[in-house]
Amino acid sequence: MREISVNQIRDIIAQMVMKINVVYPEDIQTCMQQAAETETHPIAQSTLQFLLKNAAIAKEEKLPICQDTGMAIVFLSIGQDVHFVDGSLSKAVNKGVALGYQKGYLRKSVVDDPLFDRINTKDNTPAILYTNIIEGEHVEILVGAKGFGSENMSTITMLKPAQGIQGVKETVINAIRQAGPNACPPMVVGVGIGGTFDYAAMLAKKATLRADLHNPDPRYAQLEEELLAEANKLGIGPQGMGGNTTVFRINVEQFPTHIAGLPCAVNISCHVTRHAKEVL
Questions:
Q1: pTM metric for this prediction
Q2: Coil, helix or strand for 189?
Q3: What CA–CA distance (Å, rounded) separates 204 from 155?
Q4: CA-CA distance, 172 to 150, in Å (whole number)?
């Protein structure tokens, strides 16, 4: 049995939310640079160069890459041999988010009630927290900061099993087409297939934060490549100005489902797609 103080979780999350809001993740930085080198549309190429310049200034000046510093999403994969001490884990997560947004002078965008009061909580909490039990005595912390220009363009569709691969492809491409410039492209698109209505959405969210290049299942990896090629034929381009770079990556996550269903969730993320992972 390994003991981990929740205060350690708090401090790590505080550092993570500050960093991801001012520094591009390495995988996204690589996507941006590669796109700027290969894009043939002049306006699109210029737009990508502006985005790279914005990222460089944000990193140097320690300023947010975007004014929408997002809602914090935290995935905790917790080893079954871990025992947390010094207080509540969920409270520590929210304290970490609050501390990071306060110390980093990041915009607080969370409201307490979604429908009636909509009063700002003033510290960007509560975060969205997902926990998962894994083997071992370590803890994996995956953190994202999700802006809502792109979040608002996300969809979930309960397909019929007979619609199959073609139904999934049409669902994903239609979601990207509808998102258009509103999602602040080039986009990273997470696709969740299977599970239930709610689980597919969670899979799609987690997929947007995945740094791995491809799904480990070669069939799904091929689907990712096919979807990416189709998406970039739409011509939406960087910031909706036209061009060949509408989407950086399409990440697919899958889970077993019921014989009568084929849930398909599409989580749209903007060109920043802030994420980081730490392992304790």
A1: 0.94
A2: strand
A3: 10
A4: 14
